[in-house]
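This part of the workshop introduces the protein records we will be handling. As an example, a complete record with its sequence and its structure tokens follows.
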Amino acid sequence: MSFRLVTVNLNGIRSAADKGFMPWAESIRADCMGVQEVRAQADHIEGRFDTVAGLKGHFHFAQKKGYSGVGLYTRHEPSDVITGIGNREFDDEGRWVEARFDSPLARNGFPKLSLISCYFPSGSSSEERQAAKFRFLAKIYPHLRKLKADREFILVGDVNIAHHEIDLKNWKGNLKNSGFLPEERAWMTRLLNAGGLVDVFRRLNQQPDQYTWWSNRGQARAKNVGWRIDYHLATPGLAALARRESIYTEQKFSDHAPLIIDYDFDL
């Protein structure tokens, strides 16, 4: 059994498509793919991006046009799809889509399972957006705790936090910058410790220089001066089934790279 789960921030699905994202998606043979920052509305998706590589798309669009938005492409039909976390401020920004696969006779041993695509706010543009990011972290933590008490899940997405020094190249120069602030890193530690979730990539790969985002300034990508801010965050039972990981960097669809993890289960 094998289940391939991919996550990538597209920085605009139409832009990524112009850069070869669709043929790549066909080639990667994913079972499920979470995308963030689709920057599109339903009328942009319909007939063009509602299905990718044979996977059906489920979306949570932002109210503001050309902003945020997440999608989850699935090979298997969910028993339910949930958008939002029940908070109007962030639900209006299109940050959460959850596909539930519930079956008392589940072949994978998980009768209640969710796959989630989530886009955490960035706080780098202003103090106001950093304050919003902190509000989101305060809301999402109990939401994830409650979800974990009810079901197994894997959340994939752009978390906009590099957890440890190993997770970005220039950590000393970013100690006071959004994405590597002490409060953000402490939140991630709490999520992985008291919150009981697993950073699946780090469970499989403890090597340095493993990044998923690079600034467009200078030669950051060419020099691999990056950040690891895209994650698979899973409940322990699912995390234990992770077998292989890779970050795809051969083509550039956006300022992020796809993160691919294969799990030893099937829906």
